[in-house]
Each structure stands twice: as C-alpha cells, then as structure tokens.
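Weekly modeling sync, notes
Attendees: AB, CL, MP (scribe)

Item 1: holo prediction request
CL wants a bound-state model with FE3-S4 cluster before deciding which constructs to order. AB pointed out that an apo prediction alone won't tell us much about the pocket. Agreed to run with the ligand included and paste results into these notes for async review.

Input as submitted:
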Amino acid sequence: MYLTNEEKLMLDGEEGYATKKSMEILVALGNIFGAEKLVRVGSVQVAGVSYHNLGDAGLEFLNGLAKDGRVKVLTTLNPAGMDLEDWKKLGISEEFAEKQNLVIDAFRKMGIIISCTCTPYLIGNLPRYGEHIAWSESSAVTFANSVIGAKTNREGGPSALAAAFVGKTPCYGLHLEENRVPDMHVNVRAKLKKLSDWGALGYAIGKKAQNKIPYITGIEAADLDELKTFCASVVTYGSKPLFYIRGITPGSEKHNPPEERIVIADKDLKEAYESINDNVDIVDFVCIGCPHSSVKEIAEIAKLLENKRISPNTEFWVATSRLTKQLADKRSYTATIEKAGGKFACDTCMAVAPLKGRFRSVATTSAKGCYYSRHNNMKTQLGSLEECVEAAVKGKWS
Ligand code: F3S
C-alpha cells in the first residue's frame, strides 16, 4: 500500500506509541484487503465500549493507547455497558461500574466525545453524502452508507480507534464506488404497517440477500425511525451494510434494478416474526430503543404511558443517548415515562449491558434486539410500540 512521507513517519513512531500501533493496524488491514492507499475520514465511531465485552484485557489495551493516543478527527462512542450517570437504577453492580468507568476514562483521555450511542447521526456526528468515515456499530454503519450516502466499512473497535488516531482509513471495500453497486433486486410487496414490520422486513431480506447489496423497490415512504430499525435488522440477519431503496435513499437513482430478483410478500414477514419470536407469556423486561430511540419515539412512548402504570413485575427501559433524553426532558416526556414506572437507559442498550440471567423474556420493537437477547438467554417477542407498552403494563404478552 502506498504511504505518504507523513504516514511513513507515523509508522516509524514519530508521533508516539498509539499512532505507530494504529499505522501498523491500518497498513496490515490495507495489505490484506488490497487497498492502494489510506483515505482521510471525516469522523469515527468506536464500538467495543462495554466492559462486559472488553474485559480486563480490553481495558489494558485501551489504557496502553490512552497514554499518548489523541484523536485527530471527530470521534464518538457506541453504547457502554451501563447508564454512566444513573447505573444503580438499572441494577448494575458497583464492581462492574468501577471497571466501566475506567474504560470511559481511557476514551476520554484520547479526546473522544463520550456520546455512547449507536445513533450518532442524531446528536452531532452527521457525515455528509459521499464523505469517507470509519464507523463501527453495524446499524450505524448501515445507516451512514445507505441513508446518508457516506462511505464506511464495518470497522472493528481497534481499527476504528486506529483511524481516529491517524485520521485516515485504508481505501478498500465500501470506500470504493465499484463495491457499492447493488447485486440483488428486492421487490417488496409486503404491507408495512408498524415499526416492528421494518425489523421483520430486515430479517426477511437479510436472510435472502446474505452478503449482497439489496436494491429495494416497492416501498413508497419511510421515516427515520423505520429506516434505522430496518438498518439494524437487515445487517444483523445477513446483508452487507449497504442497501438502496428506490426513490428514498440517495444513490438509488444512479443504479438500475439488478437482474437477480426476489420478492418479499406478506408471508415472508409472517415467517420472520415466527422465527424471531418465542412462545412468550410472562414479560419481565421491555426495552425500546434498538437502535437508540429518537425524540419522536420517546414522545410516542410517553403518549402511550399517560395515566398508566407499568407492572411491578416488569422492568421497562427506554434506551437512548443522553442528549436525546435531554430533549425529551424539555417536553416532559421523561417525567411521564418515569411517573409510569419506566426507566431511561442512557449511554447503554439491551445488547451491551450485563443482562444475562436477569430476565426470562423480553418484548421489544427491535428484531436486532431479539437476536442479541437470545444470546442473553431470554425468550423474545417482537411487536409494535403499542404492543410492547401494553405488555409492560400487563406484565404479559397478549
Ligand atoms: Fe444500538 Fe445496542 Fe441495538 S448498539 S443497534 S441499541 S444492540
């Protein structure tokens, strides 16, 4: 891979340990994937923030880099393993909180913005169309590539950090136009009536597209919450972190529908629900906000919870970024939800918090959330916002 003089100096250690290590990672990746050069990135989003996933080895790695590593571009963080300000309310242990705070201290020292969200595009890390970026979290990567039209591979935690310290990433994969060409035409004939249908659609397309780039037709409208839900699901269940929806996402006008064609009908959505869902009766956990809730979703939750009370046997979380919650505070949505017995899980989410063994079953609007909850040994129920709120109030699925 071609390196400029400045890059060679970084590789030789001119800027210190963290930048040298970062260059080693980026050059190794570039050589493996046949990149010709490094390309400047406008921003970085780093995943691998929860102590639950990092453990002591990860913390040690971060502390090593934090000694002299400082980011060169706007860099934000994925969710951590707990609400950084109010972790006790979520049932997190002192021991875990202490370790998680050490992880956050290391990131803070590097100059990273402690935003802890998978929807960074809602709170200040918003790339422009065509911009090269280095993001990690799969739903955010898919949203950036597909809905915004920025260009990023799905970075691992270390390669994203390396890009932040160098300000560049190897130019291969989805950074190159020739690799952003759709190769499967997906004609959606299914009716999409509620938010969770977009998660089921993501499941159905992801399973059939398996590492292909879908070019989707048949969808006439989609709002931001529907698109972010779809992004999380389609990449979790199989496709590349890029899709086009004709007439809705940018770049779709540049491509024609590929020859290989599949149809997604109502029965495919029904099958998706059947695969994602278990046989759930008692619901002891309800989580909304995967990807992290927008203020519009929070407003809808507050409306549904007005003058209601969540079952004492059910834990109800609204996962979101702290900044989005601050917007919700201003309209009293927070007060309404908390008065009903709901809890805000800022900075964290149902997949990266240490939840194994705490709950038997979860109801959620997120197909991706169901996928990860099964890893936490929970039975899963995917449903609309109305259905999930009702389950939280009754303590059971009906
Ligand atoms: Fe975001 Fe966590 Fe879901 S990172 S997409 S809320 S699993």
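Recorded for review: Residues 8 and 89 are 49 Å apart (CA to CA).
Action items: CL to compare against the apo run; MP to circulate these notes.
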